Amino acid sequence: MNGDKKDLLIRIREKYNKLSKGQKLIASFVMNNYDKVAFMTASKLGEKVGVSESTVVRFANALDYKGYPDLQKELQELIKTKLTTVQRLELSKNYDEEGFFKKVMQADVDNILKTVSELNTESFNEVVKSILEAKKVYVFGLRSSTVIVEYFSFYLNFILDNVRIVPSGINDILDQLVNIDEDDVFIGLSFPRYTKKTIEVMEFAKNKGAKILGITDSQFSPISEVADITLTAKSNMTSFVDSLVAPMSLINALIIALSMKEKDRITDRLKSFESTWEKYDIYINK
Fold first, then answer.
1. Which of these, 148, 211, 228, 264, has the minimum number of CB atoms within 10 Å of its CB?
2. Contacts of residue 156, Cβ cutoff 8 Å, sequence gap at least 6
3. Hey, what's the torsion of the CAs at 258, 262, 267, 268, to 10 degrees?
4. Average pLDDT across the chain, whole number
5. With 0-12 CB in 10 A as exposed, 13-18 as middle and 19+ as buried, what is 169?
């Protein structure tokens, strides 16, 4: 996003009177169809409005963007938080029924590749270090993020004995966090559409002195403003379904990094688990 992160639509309204005739046509179309423009090329937008591709590029420059891709990127960030599930479902109509599954899966692959290329190694290592040094580790996320919370906590419990899943009920949250302090780590997970309660709970834990680790889709995510360290994993959607493939891959990387740091201790713990599983006949043995 641009420097001051001002809402794109507000910026268009402020600069509208200074735009050329062709640029005003683009501005009006963007204002009324920003959910569709977010996935249009500059040439396609120009064709739709009836202006040249160069006029579209100049329109982006007039709004203080380096080029159309930067404007489009901000539009895509904008719709993550402002589109309803029904509007997000409408986006999937841009795909043909034939081969649709390949496009969905390719989008997940692209999300992982972007996550890998943008991952900050220093921040990743700092998150691993913070988790290992914490007295207690609290993990919290709502709605679709609860899936990742459960998965992450399941494996963390093989490595550590101080992990707590914070329940989603507001009374339970306060009960679970009443004793959180500066020796603890709070891990908050949130992906579009971001929930208000996640931010409120993270702020509560931060005010109690805990170190806040955020896992989200962008450094511009609301939880990045609260977190001491933020790791990002792309979750660009093709429909109303949240893409959690890249976030899950990031979580896997964290789990493996933590297990390698605690290799000797985890070996003894896993042996104990295996004995219990065998004793109570947990798994099928053929």
1. 264
2. 131, 137, 139, 163, 255, 258
3. -130
4. 86
5. exposed
